Input
Amino acid sequence: METTDEYRLSHTAVGKGASYQESFEKYPYRRLMWTWEKKQIKEIITYRFKKEKDILDFACGTGRILLELANISENVTGIDVSESMLDIARKRVPNTEIINADITHINPFEEKKQFQIIVSFRFFLNAQPTLRKEVLSALTPMLEDDGVLIFNNHGNSSHLGLFLQITVMKVKKILRPKKKYFVPKKLSRKQIDELLECEGLKIVETYHRNVWPIMSEKREKDVSKFETLENWFSKRKFFERLSRNVIYVCKKKS
Ligand SMILES: C[S@@+](CC[C@H](N)C(=O)[O-])C[C@H]1O[C@@H](n2cnc3c(N)ncnc32)[C@H](O)[C@@H]1O
Output
């Protein structure tokens, strides 16, 4: 049965931070996505905000994205519920404010504190629907009226690789029904629009990556040979629906 605490606790075990960080060094696909995400975040933020930038990285984990944000601005805050993840973040981004808290339970900032930019990566796909809603309800009042919320969905439901992965899993299940299989998570644009709608937010820009049907993020084969192709796909809006990883830039509806 799904409980609201399920995803909150998912990264709290001792050693989880280290193994999470390692996975971005070990798996070529994850490494490539990380490179693309950092480049994209920098472009989105520096294009929109020329001067002071007050940024919150929600569910900052090991500081993977926080590291890049700290290069862009001096006013960056990271927040996460897992000490195991934050332990790595504190070493990685030492001069940045990092808070251990669950914003759906407590607001650790001064009342009425708002950020120009709120970022959240690899969170919304993974979190269960109730947690997604609770988080968005807590984050929206923390966003300035003309601020932006930037988040990604690294399991876009119409990605061909995901479709293949699920089909292969179903076939395996028929052949060996007793074995446990990992069911990949997926999130559709429609689900995202509905989630944002509830909080009076709308998508104003999107960026996409990974059309080539890679079945698993954790495959060890080098996937950089597809980069020229991926650059081409990334520049064409049509391919967004077929991409695995999509970044959304959202604003409050006026
Ligand atoms: C997959 S990690 C993503 C970390 C980082 N944003 C990145 O892209 O590498 C998801 C993070 O969400 C955090 N998390 C889950 N529920 C949370 C909550 N309610 N409040 C704060 N952090 C939460 C987990 O502890 C975990 O570190």
Summary: The domain at 16-158+186-252 is CATH 3.40.50.150 (Rossmann fold). The beta strands are 54-58, 75-80, 97-100, 115-120, 143-153, 201-209, 245-252. The chain has a mean pLDDT of 94.
